[in-house]
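User: Fold this, then the next.

Assistant: Folding the first:
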Amino acid sequence: MKSLLKLARVCGLFLLLLGIFSSCTVQLAPSYNQELVTGITAQNKATMEFFAMVALGTKQSTYANREPYYNQLIGSFDALVTQANARFTPRNKVRQKANEALKKKGIPVLEEGEIPSATALERIYTTLVKMRETDQKQGVTLTEVQAFKGQIKIYMDQALTYENALER
């Protein structure tokens, strides 16, 4: 009888602890933000439409026609970077230990508080600024357009993949 009572207490304690720990979660990434994902998706579409417009290359003499498109895209990506960075980024021991383990193996890690999608969006912004400068000075060739587009598609994939993964 005593062993049965002891077993019941142990089971009860186990269930209590299980209930407490199952309600605890460790947040390792910023929260999902549907508005940010919608903005990234909209700018992805606008950017690919822009690349369709300049797909065969451009001439410096017609740059003024494209300048408003560049300005709209660059301004929108700058705003998305700010929006992505404005979210709370959790700092916790689990993330710290994981980063330390990765560093020991020689695997690069994000800096404390760095958000992968914000970094990718910032690189899209920088790429578009460089493309605008090149276009304004000399126009862009077919090969240059393809290179800029390829680079932006890589960063866009990174931003969208990360943000969509946060939806859980």
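Now the next one, as you asked:
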Amino acid sequence: MLKKYKDDQEFYSLVGIKPQTFYKMLEILKIAESKQKYYGGRKNKIVIEGRLLMTL
């Protein structure tokens, strides 16, 4: 789970994108991951939010 930030500006300065954009990207990734997991595979050790933050 993501840490709570004071405001959108703090999130933007740390991550580099607006929180709204981040959550939209997260929705798209969750849909893609569910389609991929339909065919099987191993569980990821890092949650999807963490993987997205590392990518950014």
